[in-house]
Specification:
Keywords: Carboxypeptidase, Hydrolase, Metal-binding, Metalloprotease, Protease, Zinc. It is an enzyme of class 3 (hydrolase). Pfam families: Peptidase_M32. The chain has 490 residues and is mainly alpha-helical. 65% of the residues lie in helices and 3% in strands. The protein folds into two domains: 142 residues, no CATH class; 328 residues, Neurolysin, domain 3. The protein is built from 20 helices and three strands. The chain has a three-stranded mixed β-sheet. A hairpin with a 2-residue loop joins strand 2 and strand 3. It is globular.
């Protein structure tokens, strides 16, 4: 066997173990008994030690030195293996395992503090998580920028400085649009009634099927914070329900279907290899956001959804498809990122991006974080945070150590804007298909031009290959201004 064949055989087993680790994480957030958390933390740490040892194994370097890339696929595989091996050899095994153990425990402590609305109860654990992640960043950065070292886990090739420049370019138009909408004096209609949670889940399934979710290789469960997990032949999603508000369930499902369809659609030739998954969280988010927003919140699809909602719930307090479209796209200064409208959403991300960069740089201490959050929120959203669960404690990302993850949400929105601009030209019948609930026909363009390629190309190159144009914030901002300008008579 060649060095390349030996290397790929070894890496496939490592990738399989990483899938098992992901399944343990899915179990922890869905069905694991609460009392099992300390044991699960030890299990996750033990598995992390095995995976870390394989990722940093000396024979990988030997195989990489001898392996030859016969084509673009092999070249991409070698690139990802080399990158992962380099990062793994820089991080001590004990630090990697301790990070896994502490962040597994931290999740439950955060959930309790969030329920009690008590940031001080979580602060000591959060300090420990932050300290461990900074140690990891120092190992990875080798004298460079700590935040960039962490960001590279989620969006290879990007830096905090380049993203800050992109976000600074977006901010004025977002703030101006938000202000114009709130000053318009127009308000959107609201759903009325109590919405049976079983009916919500049935409608959630129908929406998932409309967007092409493959239930033979996936499933939908409930979780406090919806997420997608797994890849290849086993890609699962979760959603949430609220009897007072069904949109959270419907659009959480569509959002996570976007993530999962990316994973389900990657070429089976790449199964259990480094390129057999989404290339980055920004590109991943582009899929979930275009499914949820540009397609799922379009006038065409909400027309179809309006009839499905009336069938599922009966009287909903809205008497036309047009009013329903306005309700789905209502703009308001809410506290919760995952419930934010398209206009406010990126302002949530910009807040978190700036704060986490300051945390990693050591310019902001954990004990000052809640006040810093509340001050920034008042400036950006015009309202005061009423409780920690609506503020600094609302997201699970920091408790589990995902520093560098948040900016990929806005980057994903930028990518989605570029992709949607191209999709509409390539599929001129897109609105007619959505109006009939045939969303999978529209997302087929994404499957063919982006999803099936997995991590074959770098993140930006993946999107540029699909669109044939360089990345720009303009398509997203133009889309937002046109859509919400029409809705609010601007």
């Amino acid at each position: 066997m060649t060095a390349y064949a030996n290397l790929m055989g070894f890496v496939r087993e490592t990738e399989a173990l990483k899938q098992v680790q992901g399944r343990l994480g899915w179990d922890q957030e869905t069905v694991m008994p609460r009392g099992a958390a300390p044991q699960r933390a030890e299990e996750m740490a033990a598995l992390d030690r095995v995976i870390h040892a394989r990722r940093s194994a000396p024979q990988i370097a030997e195989w990489l030195a001898e392996a030859e890339a016969g084509d673009d696929v092999a070249a991409a595989q070698l690139h990802h293996i080399r990158r992962e091996h380099d990062r793994a050899t820089k991080v001590p095994a004990d630090l990697s395992a301790e990070l896994t153990r502490v962040t597994s425990l931290s999740q439950g402590i955060w959930a309790d503090a969030r329920s009690a609305n008590d940031f001080t109860a979580f602060a000591p654990t959060f300090s420990e998580v932050l300290n461990l992640r900074r140690q990891e960043a120092e190992a990875l950065a080798t004298g460079g920028d700590l935040y960039d070292a962490l960001l590279d886990d989620y969006e290879p090739g990007e830096t905090g400085a380049t993203l800050a420049a992109m976000f600074d370019a977006m901010r004025p138009r977002l703030v101006a649009l938000r202000g114009a909408i709130l000053d318009s004096g127009k308000s959107a209609p609201k759903l009325q009634g109590i919405f049976d949670e079983t009916a919500q889940l049935r409608l959630s399934d129908a929406c998932a099927r409309a967007f092409g979710y493959d239930f033979e290789h996936g499933r939908i469960d409930k979780a406090v914070h919806p997420f997608s997990s797994g890849s290849g032949l086993d890609s699962r999603i979760t959603t949430r329900t609220d009897p007072a508000e069904p949109f959270g369930c419907i659009y959480s499902t569509i959002h996570e279907v976007g993530h999962s369809r990316y994973e389900q659609t990657v070429s089976p030739d790449y199964l259990l290899t480094p390129i057999g998954c989404g290339v980055s969280m920004g590109v991943h988010e582009s899929q979930s956001r275009i499914y949820e927003n540009q397609l799922g919140r379009s006038r065409a699809f909400t027309g179809w959804l309006y009839e499905r909602c009336r069938e599922a719930f009966g009287e909903i307090g809205i008497d036309s498809a047009e009013a329903f479209y306005a309700a789905v796209n209502a703009v308001h200064s809410g506290y919760i990122r995952t419930e934010a409208d398209e206009v406010h959403y990126n302002l949530h991300i910009l807040l978190r991006f700036d704060l986490e960069r300051a945390l990693i740089a050591g310019d902001l201490g954990v004990n000052d974080l809640e006040a810093a959050w509340n001050d920034r929120f008042r400036v950006d959203f015009g309202v005061a945070v009423d409780k920690p669960s609506n503020g600094v404690l609302q997201d699970v990302h920091w408790p589990v150590g995902l520093f560098g993850y948040f900016p990929t949400y806005t980057l994903g929105n930028v990518y989605a804007g570029c992709l949607f601009e191209t999709l509409r030209k390539a599929h001129p019948d897109w609105e007619h298909a959505l109006a009939e609930g045939r969303a999978a026909e529209v997302t087929g363009w994404l499957a063919e031009n982006l999803q099936r390629h997995g991590a074959l190309r770098a993140p930006r190159a993946t999107v540029e290959h699909a669109t044939g144009a360089p990345i720009s914030v303009e398509p997203l901002l133009d889309y937002l201004e046109a859509k919400f300008g029409a809705l609010y008579g601007l």
